[in-house]
Amino acid sequence: MPPPCPHRSLQLEPSAYAREVGFEWTSPAQRLAAATRSGRVPVLPAPSAGPSGGGRRKAADVRAEQVARDLLHSFPGPLVLPTDELAWDPGYETQSFQAWCDDETRNRPTRARRTLYVAAVPEITEEVGFMRDWLRAQPKPGAATHDSSSSSYPELKTPDLDDYVAYLGAFYHGFTVKPFPQKLRFVSWEQKNRSKKYQYVGLATEEGNCTRIRARTSPDGVFSQQLNLEDVLDAEISVLPKDAYAMALLVDHDLYEDEEDDFCCGRAYGVNRVCVVSTARYHPILDASQELDIDHVWPASHCKAFVDAQVAAADVHRAREPSRGGAATRHAPPTQTAEHLRTLWLSRLVRTVSHELGHTVFLDHCVYYACMMQSTTGLAEDLRQPPYLCPVCLAKVSHKVAVELQGGGGDGARHAYVLERYEALAQVCDRWKGVGMFAGFQAWLRARIEIIREQHRS
């Protein structure tokens, strides 16, 4: 095992590979403008003494570029590594704050519809007890694995619903975040004509609603069976409370979306205000077999040495087939306690649930910065993405809450909200400050809070 990477320098701009695939990063001025309601570069304070006329305008342009570059220390650009989503789709369309505001179809909160619900993992009833076998991971043959039955890797319990509610209550500060009040259950489903392709189970509520869920054999064999996420989302839509702004459903089973998928970790139907997230592939027991470089998950994902190594290893002429993970260099030894591993599992899941709920707020995938709303090709890229919202996506959420939900007035209300939200997130991260993502996020939040306060003082 090689020594740990010292992470001596950071990559603040997209990698050299971005140019190879044709990714054109937005300019500093475009990034600043994208975070404004007007769609124009904001008027920035300049020194009282200085040039006039055209010279002043030029000085303002230089000032705007400097402000945008200063932001990179808190909000680096997207990495665009060889297996990243933006490497496969470098021309993905941007969604500015102005474009988001002008979208007449987006989900708007009302007095009667302002609650975010989080539904717990459905219970497996005795009549479908065989579904418990579907939860057992079988890492890929030949891969370095940790044996979940051995004393070196303790059995983990699914993270508590209350922890999701606490984190999401801070992340979407201003919304009311509650557990879904009904208990969901997997039950048997009678099918007259048996399918050779699918098994069927039902997803039922306490009120008696029941939706058929297809299950298929997992193509990669990591789990024996997978549930169809479109069916699960249909069940969720049927029970969406009247006062729900949106709802997230957690499932422990592996999911797939269509026949082309190996698996899918989560999906949102923004228009329908629902999303589903599977806990399965995020389980730490699978880290080694999924070839995850644990040394370079966020906040270490912008390590320049790591980025350069990934680019150097890429063959830009190879056939473009999506990868489910990056090259593995080291793996964390399985010496952590069960509680540490469970919190690590939670840290991965809350980021994904926050992302999927972001789509119900009508946030599109982000290409402006490294951002929680970036799209990913698989687990390796997923764990490299930050848990924070970039300035453009944060402008949308702050407007949604401070202006549309709370009735505040414009930029002043949004700016005050941002500071409140950062404080709420820093406090909730303190619950789990011994675990990488939460510790890194709390440090990042405290730094941003100090920067904002310093800007206000000056």
Please compute the radius of gyration using only Cα atoms: 23 Å
What pattern of helices and strands is seen along the backbone? Answer: HHHHHEEHEEEEEHEEEEHHHHHH
How far is it from the N-terminal to the C-terminal residue, by CA?
49 Å
The description of the largest β-sheet is: 6 strands, mixed
Q: From the coordinates shown, what is the CATH architecture?
A: 3-Layer(aba) Sandwich
Overall 3D form = globular
**CATH superfamily label:** Collagenase (Catalytic Domain)
- Kindly state the percentage of residues in helix: 25-40%
Strand content: 5-15%
Number of strands: 11
Defining traits:
458 residues, alpha/beta, Collagenase (Catalytic Domain), 6-stranded mixed β-sheet, 5-stranded mixed β-sheet, Archaemetzincin-2, hydrolase, MetalloPept_cat_dom_sf
Description:
It is a single chain. By secondary structure, the protein is an alpha/beta fold. The protein has a single domain (89-457), classed as 3-Layer(aba) Sandwich (Collagenase (Catalytic Domain)), CATH 3.40.390. Helix content is 34%, strand content 11%. The protein has helices spanning 16-21, 28-34, 54-71, 85-88, 97-102, 161-171, 229-238, 304-313, 338-360, 379-384, 391-405, 410-429, 436-457, and strands spanning 115-119, 123-124, 176-179, 185-188, 199-204, 210-217, 225-228, 244-251, 255-256, 266-269, 274-278. The strands form 2 sheets. A 6-stranded mixed beta sheet has the order 2-4-5-6-7-9. A 5-stranded mixed beta sheet has the order 3-1-8-11-10, with helices on both faces. A hairpin with a 4-residue loop joins strand 10 and strand 11. The N and C termini lie far apart (49 Å).
